[in-house]
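Exercise 7b. Backbone tokens:
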């Protein structure tokens, strides 16, 4: 366990404890198995917080320029991709704090010039891109359902951060639906609005909000170019000899 860095360490995103191909249980990288259809055809539920990357970026406050961010991504996240691929990722995440994470907070929470940009990239790399890839590639097979938690946006600096979705598991918001899913392989029929299955043509997200309206169905179409660039970079890195 000493190989693991603490969450606020500089290189904490270089996760050592990921599923690795062992040649027996996982015959190759998990994402390549998804591409090849070598995945159990069973229904599943998967979801994320909106601002998954903020907590993992707090320890990198010394990254204040685009050049420093590029160097960090090259060293810790995409060490095997070429410059063209890496430049494609950076181009898809403009150096504009109003577009960064915490999302939908304007220029607020910009604790460093690159913090919100870095948070967006890291959150999509670790969470949103793999989730969307799995859902898209499995579309047309067994039913899948996805959710997005956007509560806690007023939390300074971190917004709807990693782990803040635990609240929806502890009340009736999602717990009833998951119990219904375990028993019927369908979350509907619980105390939620109708939750459509996720398909490539209609990528529905059950989205949790604060205020008078707490549950809505939204489309999983945010940051299409960025998430696609990250997925392509990840696969390019996997396929390097």
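Sequence design result:
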């Amino acid at each position: 366990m000493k190989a693991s860095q603490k969450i606020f360490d500089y290189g904490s995103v270089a996760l050592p404890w990921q599923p690795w191909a062992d040649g027996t249980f996982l015959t190759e990288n998990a994402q390549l198995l998804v591409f090849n259809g070598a995945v159990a055809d069973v229904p599943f539920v998967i979801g994320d917080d909106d601002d998954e990357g903020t907590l993992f970026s707090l320890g990198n406050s010394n990254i204040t320029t685009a050049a420093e961010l590029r160097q960090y991504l090259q060293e810790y996240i995409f060490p095997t991709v070429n410059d063209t691929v890496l430049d494609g990722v950076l181009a898809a995440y403009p150096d504009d704090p109003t577009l960064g994470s915490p999302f939908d907070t304007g220029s607020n929470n910009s604790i460093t010039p690159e913090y919100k940009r870095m948070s967006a990239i890291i959150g999509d790399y670790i969470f949103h891109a793999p989730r969307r890839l799995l859902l898209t590639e499995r579309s047309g097979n067994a039913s899948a359902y996805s959710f997005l938690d956007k509560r806690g946006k007023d939390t300074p600096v971190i917004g709807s951060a990693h782990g803040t979705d635990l609240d929806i598991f502890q009340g009736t918001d999602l717990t009833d639906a998951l119990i219904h899913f375990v028993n019927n392989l369908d979350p509907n029929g619980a105390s939620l609005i109708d939750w459509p299955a996720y398909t490539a043509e209609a990528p529905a997200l059950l989205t949790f909000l604060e205020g008078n309206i707490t549950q809505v169905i939204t489309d999983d179409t945010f940051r299409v170019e960025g998430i696609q660039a990250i997925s392509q970079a990840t696969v390019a890195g996997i396929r390097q000899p």
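Instructor comment: The chain has one domain: 30-238. The CA atoms of residues 140 and 199 lie 7 Å apart.
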